[in-house]
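FAQ: What does the model actually see?

It sees only this:
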Amino acid sequence: MMADKNWQQFSDIDYNPEKGIIARCLYYEENGRKGKSVIIVGMNPGRAKPEETNYFKNKENRNYPAGVRYWEQNRKDYINFYGPLRDLADKADLTGPILWTELVKCQSRKNAKALSLNTIRYSISNYLCKEIAAMPDNTPLIAVGNHAFELLAYVYPNRKIIGIPHPSKGNFGYHYAYQKGKVISSQLIQLIKQHLKNGNNNAVQSSYNKSQKKFVIKK
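And it is asked to produce this:
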């Protein structure tokens, strides 16, 4: 994944290993986790910070084990993504291993309005489909954000998929769902638990309804 030079053909993403900009955000977290597993899928990584690009400028760090070490030491509990989503999984009784991944493994290029269909198709077919196939068939997918939910719902009609608000402050629903790296809405957790308990593999998306002042399942 990190060494895949085919990323360079896509004009909407950044991939420049010499500058420390690599494909990333694929982690399997199992240490200390026991219970039902879950796959948590975002759209694509945010822009790397200077300390991260400096780390990957070193050619010796441009390999998967080194990438995992960096994540475990610096990003595992990041309060704008991994922290609140892990807390959400735990409170929804998904306390087993977590496969953290993204539909596209590279960050968006500056000023790119949206990822192209071909970029998404390449990443899904070469990486995401293989990652999800390696997990048990009954592993639920948590889709982070609207775009990730819509794409996963089309690609995986036979998997249980739950769409949730993205835990970044610029997204609608953030202030009703998350705070300081935690999930603060017990009602959102109950919606997720209810869908996990039913016997079908429908894709459902939660959103905050201002008029009702609660999270609801979008119809």
